Amino acid sequence: MPYAVGLDTVGTDNPIVVEGIPVTGEYLEISWEDYTAAINCLVSGQHVCVVNGVFVLDYQLPPPGGQ
């Protein structure tokens, strides 16, 4: 099964390794449909994120300064 963790990180390995470094954070197992949707979001410049145990497609980054 695929996994998502943090911001814009999806993969099929647990842990997910990016450039030789395991990604830390809250791992969430997602469906293949969510995995495919996440790849489509990332390719189109949108973001995906795991927030409080929920996988969010088209995650909106907070504005600079947190406002």
UniProtKB/TrEMBL annotation:
Lineage: superkingdom: Bacteria
Protein's UniProt name: Uncharacterized protein
Organism, scientific name: Rhizobium mesosinicum
